[in-house]
Structure formats: C-alpha cells, structure tokens
Amino acid sequence: MGKKKNRKEKDSNHSGNQGAGSIEKISKKEYEAELFRLQVELVKLQDWVKQAGARIVILFEGRDAAGKGGIIKRILERVSPRVFRLVALPAPTERQKTQVYAQRYIEHLPAGGEIVIFDRSWYNRAGVEHVMGFCTEEQYKKFLKGCPIFENFVVNNGIILLKYWLDVSEKEQHKRFLARIQDPSKRWKLSPMDLESHRRWYDYSRARDAMLSATDTPIAPWYIVPSDDKKRARLNCIADILSRIPYEEVPYTSPKLPARQKPKGYQEPKQTHQVIAQRW
C-alpha cells in the first residue's frame, strides 16, 4: 500500500525555533488535500488496529500554545471514538495525590483494538509540576529516574508508544498568546497557568531539556515536531505517526444497500413538535 515501515531519523535539535519563517507557506488547497489523504490513512490504521487487536499510545507534550490541540483535532476528525480515545486528565484529586504517581495514567492505557491519545501525560511531573512547585524535588528526581522503567514495562507488554514534543519558538508562542487575548472566541484558552508559563520561559526550557535527556531512550524515544507553522506541523506529525506503526490495509468489500421495506400504509404525520427557526 506504499506505506513506509522504516523508522525515520528523529530531529535532535530542540533548543530553539525551526526556521519556519524561511519556509514558504503551504497553500490552503495543498494543505487540505494532503490532510485528507493522511486522514484516509488514519482510517486504514483504525481498521488494522481493530482487526489485529493492536494497542497504541500516542502522547503529546509541549509548551502552552504549541499546537497540541490542533494536531489532535485533525487526527480525531474522521475516525471512530470507539477506537481512537482521547485522554486529557484534569488536576489530580486529593485521593489521587496519595496514589502511586503513574496509577491514574495506567488505568487509561489501551485494551486490544484501541489507540489512546494523551493530551499531556505522565510528563506533567517533569514539566508544570516541577516548574510550578506542585511536586517536591525528590518526587521530580524519582520520576526522571523511574519513567524509562515504566515506559519499558509498557512497551514490553506489547503497546506501541509514540512520544511527541511540539517545539514552538519564544516569538511564536508570544504571538499566539496575544491572539488569544484579542480574540473573544479564544480567550478561554488562556489560563493563569499559561500566563505564568509565558513569564517562566527559561524555567520551562531547562525542565524540557532535563526531561528529554532523561527519558529519550531507544525503546521509547522522543520525536520533535517543529510547530511554528501549524499546518506543516499537523501534516508532518500525522505522517510520522503513520510511518512508525506497521499497519496494513484491511481489504474492504463494498456492501450493497438493501431495498427499503414497503410502507404498508404508513404515512408521515404532520409535524406538531417545535421546529427550530430556519435562519439559513
């Protein structure tokens, strides 16, 4: 089916922006055509996952406004929520804070025939929890040391684990934050925590560097997605996901629509319920 099965070399440069401004913008027509092609492949992946009983975890991390939500939205747009399951956990409850740290994430790992997408993940401990002081220094160090062990356990149990870091530049993040302030439809996206992450850019940079250094392993490597150009980031990331899963196209036999049953005297009643106003 022409799908790449070899692993690509991942981009090891995550220290700054990707020079997106020097690349010609992709046209809307070209973007939509390529996105549709990739989404068709995601449907093929979905069919294979169901048939093979495969278990896949795709997690997305990155700074606020890096574009995680946009990529996830395009992945989920044309597939079944019964196969592709999104996990975006809120802050832990008081009870969860007393549990083993990975416990609330483990319960969301996929069963056979499922793909779980984490919009942020257990890496919260290496990022916001560490920078904002929501965990102790001891908890943070234990996480960095224990995370590769946990991920080895996940992968060795047959789960395909893909980890993506969306890399947005300081200038572009600032631009996107300003856009959220100015656009009434986007203001909800800007939380007090986002504002603090804007102020603490270099604290988060150091936390990112330490996280990637400690948890980028041969069995569970990180893949960096340059994300200053949202459209290219979406296309590149989805294409990369497809290239790293050894799926095959499941043969499809077009069904024949059966003839409708006879009405046997049934007549459509006059509508008496409230019908919404036809504004367009």
Summarize the SSE layout with pairings:
Layout: H1 28-52, E1 55-62, H2 68-76, E2 84-87, H3 94-97, H4 103-106, E3 114-119, H5 128-131, H6 137-156, E4 160-167, H7 170-182, H8 192-199, H9 201-215, E5 222-226, H10 230-243
Parallel strand pairs: 1-3, 1-4, 2-3, 4-5
Helix pairs in contact: 1-10, 2-10, 6-9
Report strand order across the widest sheet.
Answer: 2-3-1-4-5
How many whole angstroms does the radius of gyration measure?
Answer: 22 Å
Distance between the termini: 43 Å
CATH class category: Alpha Beta
Would you tell me the overall average pLDDT? 92
Share of helix, binned: 40-55%
CATH topology name, in short, is Rossmann fold
- What share of the residues does DSSP label as strand, in percent? 5-15%
Q: Which class do the helix and strand fractions yield?
A: alpha/beta
User: Low-confidence segments, ≥5 residues, pLDDT <50?
Assistant: 1-16
CATH-level-2 architecture: 3-Layer(aba) Sandwich
* Tally of separate helices: 10
Strand and helix order: HEHEHHEHHEHHHEH
Major β-sheet annotation = 5 strands, parallel
- Quaternary organisation: single chain
What's the CATH H-level homologous superfamily? P-loop containing nucleotide triphosphate hydrolases
Number of domains: 1
Q: Globular, elongated, flat, extended or rod-shaped: what is the shape?
A: globular
Q: How would you summarize what this structure contains?
A:
This protein is of the alpha/beta class and 280 residues long.
